[in-house]
Amino acid sequence: MKKILLISVSTILFLISLSCNKKVVFKDTLMEMNKPSYLLKDSSSWTSIEDKYFKLHVSNSIEDSEYPKKIQIVQQKIFQHLYKLMKVERQTDSLPKIDIFILKDIKEKYLKTQHKSSAHAIPPYYAAYYTTANAEGAHEITHILNSHFWGFFRNQKFAMLLNEGFSFYSDEGMIFKFDFYEKAKEILKNEKYQINRIISSKTGSSYEKQALVSGAFVKFLIENYGIGKFRELWIEIN
């Protein structure tokens, strides 16, 4: 009896494993599925709020009726923070309203966008896609704004140092509740994460450690030379 029970349990576990590992087949391409108009075809799936600078779309799988208004206030603060940091004129007609999609978790985000990350943005769409775990960060909106106002970052050699570095730095005090200089000092005790190694792609395996050091470097540049000079560097290096 025990042997039969053990076999039965093993069979069930095996079938569950096969089910979990089954590859999802998408009927449309990644680019098509990330189009805001594609995601919004079924409007009943979303609670949408239009704001001055963005259009917020919160998945109705998030069972918190107060959440859309809460995240709207957070996103308002993010835009105010970034406009101040980048010294962008608030009255600008050139920037379309950005679509911000909030999904419950990575599973739902993957099924709707083919992306397994907790947050992403895809040029040329003026849209950012988040799970609730990462929806209070400025990172993806930063990528959209600096691509729009300064130009898309094409120089792969300096992509981590300047592009990712700036987006990480934009989250100091937002997602990251610590001083980037202090964090960089700690990380740089390991020589693998020195600036020259980040540029030469000979760093350690941690993306986050590279990005935090890069963020501290960008902070240094902006605090010492100003955002205007950093913008000039961005444009010139591309």
Architecture overview:
- Helix content is 51%, strand content 11%.
- The protein has helices spanning 2-21, 30-33, 36-39, 67-86, 106-113, 139-150, 159-169, 180-187, 195-199, 207-225, 227-237; strands spanning 46-50, 54-59, 98-103, 119-121, 127-131.
- A hairpin with a 5-residue loop joins strand 4 and strand 5.
- The longest helix is centred in the first third of the chain and has 20 residues, at 2-21.
- The protein is globular and about 50 Å long.
Which helices and strands occur, and which strands form pairs?
Layout: H1 2-21, H2 30-33, H3 36-39, E1 46-50, E2 54-59, H4 67-86, E3 98-103, H5 106-113, E4 119-121, E5 127-131, H6 139-150, H7 159-169, H8 180-187, H9 195-199, H10 207-225, H11 227-237
Parallel strand pairs: 2-3, 3-5
Antiparallel strand pairs: 1-2, 4-5
Helix pairs in contact: 4-6, 6-7, 7-10, 8-10, 10-11
